[in-house]
Amino acid sequence: MSIQDKVIAIIAEQAVLEPSDVTLDSTLAELGIDSLGLVESIFAIEEEFDISIPFNANNPNDSDFDISNVASIIAGIQKLMAIPT
Amino acid sequence: MKRVVITGAGTINALGHTVPATLKAMREGQCGISDLDFRDVDRLTIRIGGQVHGYDAKDRFNRQQMSLYDRFTQFTLIAAKEAIEQSGLTFNGDLSVRSGVVLGTAGGGVSTWDDNYRSVYEDGKNRVHPFVVPKLMNNAATSHVSMEYNLKGPTFTVSTACASSNHAMAQAFAMVRSGMAPVMITGGSESMLCFGGVKAWEGLRVMSKDACRPFSANRNGMVQGEGAGVFVFEDYEHARARGAEILCEVIGFAMSSDAADIVMPSKQGAARAISGALHDAQVNPEDVGYINAHGTGTTANDKTECAAVADVFGPHADNLMISSTKSMHGHLIGGTGAVELLACIMALRDGVIAPTIGYEEADPECALDVVPNEAREANVTVALSNAFAFGGLNAVLALRKI
């Protein structure tokens, strides 16, 4: 499974949708994922890829991790995975 | 002052997953205590408990709910559903704004603490699920009942160890009686039957390895249980106006503190709570036909409780019945008073007194009619429910047949 497929699977599960319903330009709000669902998705992504996402739930838009849509989340993960931890 | 009645009851515990199943088990004197079944139980010295069996959370809740509901919250929601459905109430408008929830629990989400401590300490993980805090907090169950049923009035959780539920129900009663709230959802729950929960209790060395035998001379300690009891306390006029079925009336309560010892019970503290409840309910000692005892099965509690009852009731102590249903469902700690209130309702409404099972040998220090081993039919007008907690905090409720 590619990074993209894994992320889509995680987001689809959180949104209780089929992966085919989640597209790269979907926003989490459009998919019906609320603030708790967002935090849970971040947790699931961290667990899946063994990375630490710089996400602050107090002000998600100010975090150094772009969650505007599925594509930006995937790009952020790829960037984090390229940096040796 | 408003009169207060109970118009709904719900439970899940080791004896049954509903009120009718639980009352049937109490009538038949069944024992819900069995071998504990959970991870690492082989590292425990105490391996019995009143565990809820035949229950799978997945049958009742979806994945998202389960990520937020500790087992004590699950039990609470199951009991609340039964109680509120029985009452026939739906909460809208003014009723929703003024009605609330007061529940008791001693430990809250104990298994959530346990699972996640294991994960970070034993398994060495450095990340926990984001909902650990909202799942384990003591008020989680109360808040979920509030959200599920649109209850927007006074809502909080009471935590006074083994008296939590009785303190919670006393508070709910006071709120309805004063006119502050037309309806309060109240009771309590507990779920400590996990490795860490039982290990902590083991340390006190007051636990029995084989059975809970309250008042019996050969008793050797308490046995933990788990589950929930939830009730609908309603203004009598409000209940009558809508033609609700009334299970019984709540007529008084008293609370006291021993201000003496953190674990040893006090006859005086217990007696003040019992006599205070009679005074608050404006009934005479002779009116009381049944007491649901705290009756933990420890040497200290049972003899102290019997002495307190003898002090308060004088010669009438020999006429009344006092039983401990903990012998059947175990000690539900913060939820215990709620499940035990069911035995009071059965006494008042059905005229059946739940027995103290496991009774084998008379103890001269517990020389009361403890309804040994078999349920009994009796016409009871007034019943009391005792709870005497660690920390010396006591709460006694008085109920009347209606």
Structure overview:
The complex is a heterodimer of chains A (85) and B (402). Chain A has 85 residues and is mostly helical. Chain A has a single domain, classed as Non-ribosomal Peptide Synthetase Peptidyl Carrier Protein, Chain A. Helix content of chain A is 48%, strand content 0%. Chain A is built from three helices and no strands. Chain A has helices at 3-15, 35-49, 70-82. In chain A, 21% of the residues are buried. The mean pLDDT of chain A is 91. Chain B is an alpha/beta fold and 402 residues long. Chain B has two domains: 4-241, Peroxisomal Thiolase, Chain A, domain 1, CATH 3.40.47.10; 252-400, 3-Layer(aba) Sandwich (Peroxisomal Thiolase, Chain A, domain 1), CATH 3.40.47. Chain B has 14 helices and 14 strands. Classes of the chains: A mainly alpha (85), B alpha/beta (402). The A-B interface holds A 16, 36, 39-40, 42-43, 46-47 and B 64, 67-68, 127, 129-131.
